[in-house]
Amino acid sequence: MIAQQIQRTAGDVLPQEHVALRKGIWGCIHAHALDQTICKDATRRNKALHMLWVDMTKAFDSVSHGSIKWILARSGVPSPTRRLLSVIMSKQSVRYCGHQNGKLVKSKPLDVKRGVMQGDTLSPLLFCMAISPISSVLRITVSPYRTATGALTPNSGPLEINHQFYMDDLKVYTSRWEDIPTAKLAIEKVAGELGLKMNPSKCAVTSLCAPQQLTSAIGMEDIPVLGSSSLYKYLGAEQNALISTDHLWTRIIEKAETTARRIMLSDLTVRQKVNGYNQVVIPKLKYAFSCIIYGTGKFCTMRKRTRAFDESIRKLLAEAKMRYGHSCVARLYVNKEDGGLGLKSAEEELEHTVVYNWCYVALRPELQIPYQLCESLRSSNKRSLTSDFYSVLTENQLENEVTRLPEATIHVRDRTYTTATTAARAISTIVHGRWARTRLHEWKQREVASRVIADSEIGNGPYVCLKDSFLWSQTGWVSSEVLRNVWATQEGSLPTKGSAAELLRTITIPRVGMVASMDLSCAYLQLPKLSVTSTRWPDMLTPTDES
Fold first, then answer.
1. Would you call 263 exposed, middle or buried from its count of C-beta atoms within 10 A (0-12, 13-18, 19+)?
2. Cα separation, 59 vs 56, whole angstroms
3. What is the pLDDT of residues 87-101, one digit of tens each?
4. Which of 445, 480, 513 finishes a domain?
5. 278 & 152 share domain
6. Any alpha helices (H) in 265-345, and if so which ranges?
7. What PANTHER family does this protein map onto (predicted)?
8. What is the mean pLDDT of the segment spanning 149-163?
9. First and final CA of the chain: distance in angstroms?
């Protein structure tokens, strides 16, 4: 509520160089698009570009309360709101807790004199407002880099930028090397007034298309030089000139697989595991996809990597006893309402991410130069966000159904969209529909595995409501092993041993037209002990004529 009041009374209080917390701005995508456009333009046109990455030590915990109060007053925030914030900050305190002789002991309350709390919507806004004087100084002291792309376009002109903030991540761009030491000194001076301190060991500097002058620079001795083969992690992605796709993908995959393994091998129910995977693991991959504006190599290579990741997850499901290795693959990705597991596919999410990125870059006025550069690279048969997007359209047979109009609108089939979100949703809905139909078709193509969704009229059986029959798997309040065994029974793929006395066996009965029958001589799996909520189980389980 306080954050909304500040934004309402003070207006757009953040400088345009701050891409976080601005209404309508997709922060990280916006920052990556501008950053990679600057670097790509410099390497493509052989223009000198010098860059400085700046890291602050404990930035959120160090910013002074005085600087926050000062910027609030200067921004025109009403005095009652400022007094309320002043009281809130003065009441902040912490305690240190520990154990002594088996008892919990606490220190006296310690007043918090610096920093902002984290975990709410107000603190990031206060922090970004407090560090805005750094942008004011850099605007005066650093000559901006001007792109060659768009220089001959009368309506837009070239892109000019000398620095970019995303929360406490700062990157400086200039075409003059002399401005880099000047920028460093200016940042150190202003940051010191705000209670912040640079961390030189985590900063970096590099030059593109220009001779290295870094060793002789006065005041830059403590800043590491980023070599041609070195990388800096900026906004969660390893980069030098552009994003290093290989390093980014390797790191993200390792973390994603570790998280997926922790989720799938836990004691959670099936639905909890699937929701955890879809809501925790998949977003990691989607963020990695969104960082790539001008990728290296081919888009099909990224597709192969996502398919390999999906395959590794399926092997993990088999290890976690959620499926058998030979069970129907397509059913895993079918919507849970239709009898599937509802697991998200990395390959499909790659397409959705490319769609959203392209719609944002294509419709955002501040990103017209990045869009022009993407189009220029595509016309030269080089990879860019636009070429990736058209690959997605081709894969989904939408080449002639999605167009960007000159007035910065996107036409999808018979409708026109003016905002990135609505346009991306429209395209993604079509893409998801194609994936859903394909997987359902693949499931139905398996004669035995698809018997559970076959028409109830086959075999003169009674009418069965598929929606009600799949409520148990849709809810998913069962263990992984229960789901695996039930699905394997439905699909006629339950592994058995040769002797009925061992466990059980399955056979196919064409007359029933459903799953194979179970040998009820197995004491562990006798019919009265089976408790599965499904209207088809009486038809699916029949005693055999052999013992």
1. buried
2. 5
3. 988 888 889 999 988
4. 445
5. no
6. 270-276, 282-290, 299-319, 330-333
7. REVERSE TRANSCRIPTASE DOMAIN-CONTAINING PROTEIN (PTHR35450)
8. 85
9. 72
